[in-house]
Amino acid sequence: MSEIHLPHDHNHDKNHEKTLARVAAIEDFTMTADVFKQLGDGSRLRIFWLLCHCEDCVLNISAMVNMSSPAVSHHLKQLKSAGLITCRRSGKEMYYKAADTKQSKLLHTTIEQLMEIICPQD
To answer: How far is it, in rounded angstroms, from Cα 33 to Cα 30?
Structure first.
């Protein structure tokens, strides 16, 4: 990487080059932002959290979250496209669960910690 010449010299430590050498490409930040967009919906976040704790079909998930099957299917499609859940077929049924990835596990932990902070148990 060539030396960066910033328009203003504030006499700070010259760590800009080290930082810029480590910063990910905009595409990586865009993919990360897309994952966070998926979690911007409370119902989708609830379904994701549920699937971190169990594997089930659309009909059962719908009953657990008190939503229509088409609405749950829509959320599942979004979560799957973000790589946060996986599915498997057994006969005619599709079963969904949280993906076994670092991202999924981190998000699950983050959700649980935030819920503890926002909604503390008495």
So the answer is: 5
